[in-house]
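User: Fold this; tokens only.

Assistant: Input:
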Amino acid sequence: MTIAAWIIIVLLFAVGMAGAVYPILPGALAIYAAFFVYGFMIGWEPFGWWFWSVQTTLVAVLMVADYAVNAVGVKKFGGKRASVIGSTIGLIVGPFLIPVVGLLIGPFLGAVIGELVTGTELKQAVRAGVGALVGFFSGLVTKVLLQGLMIVLFIAWLVF
């Protein structure tokens, strides 16, 4: 039972880290679910109030940061609400339309199209698209670091 639990936990960690890149995957929630798998299949003893408080706070921060960092990137480059919405749609749809490359082209084109629809000039629309890419990469780094911290804290709680 313990081996099966650890296989599931590692798989959930992998899905969680992949979710930092691919928005269709659950990301932090998969990592959070791994803690419950450990509790149900191995035991709840290592986890106390502090563990759950810290991990739940990290999940909440990740969920907010996932959308906020992208929006801030677009806004910093002069984008409007339409480009934020467009880049979010592009981030979700892009990887399906153009695998791998769509992950980068999707948010860019989404922001550009969002700006153009509202009557913005092409030069400013492209600038908003660049902001979407900056936001995407900033969000990616933030998610990888915080989700990595969740995993490290989990392991530290078990070891120490």
